[in-house]
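Forwarding the complex inputs:
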Amino acid sequence: DIQMIQSPSSLSASVGDRVTITCRASQGISNYLAWYQQKPGKVPKLLIYAASTLQSGVPSRFSGSGSGTDFTLTISSLQPEDVATYYCQKYNSAPFTFGPGTKVDIK
Amino acid sequence: QVQLVESGGGVVQPGRSLRLSCAASGFTFITYAMHWVRQAPGKGLEWVAVISYDGSNKYYADSVKGRFTISRDNSKNTLYLQMNSLRPEDTAVYYCARPLWQRGEYFQHWGQGTLVTVSS
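Prediction (whole assembly, two chains):
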């Protein structure tokens, strides 16, 4: 099965900073990758699918890129409400594995 | 609007069984594959199982294969997860999830989750 790795596992950044999270698949998955945001005590929220398509209603400061095995989620200007854990997920075929998550907080 | 409401969680001893349900409303249930995703306390998301729109295809995570069975009753708009031979490591909040579209297994809609605790 394809494994999903995220880095870093956690980061601390200042408001207004550009933040980049990386997700790597152990085999190519084309662009079958989604990103989720999960705030404490809440259900996950879909941010991006097809590696770079922003889900409706998601702020434009979020963006995704990549294809094959290497993907990134970028927050162009970190806001206090972006404190959360971010997960990538492959969906090219079962199992639809999630990455281990990246916890983002404010410095 | 789309609503997914899980039920059936609780405390169960290791080796015992439990059946979770997910009642769906606000969309045409029969046209969507449906999934279960779980999250152990303080841990990340783990995809568990998927069932096709008509129940003909099912896939499972290796961690639950042979012990869990996903099923659906399209006449009742309800998704199920039968969990047998439960282990302490199955302790988690279990979410049912619906994809955004009828194709593409990424999840726009989630239930509120039901907590399963496996402990003696």
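Chain A touches chain B at residues 1, 34, 36, 38, 43-44, 46, 49-50, 55, 85, 87, 89, 91, 94-101 (CB under 8 Å).
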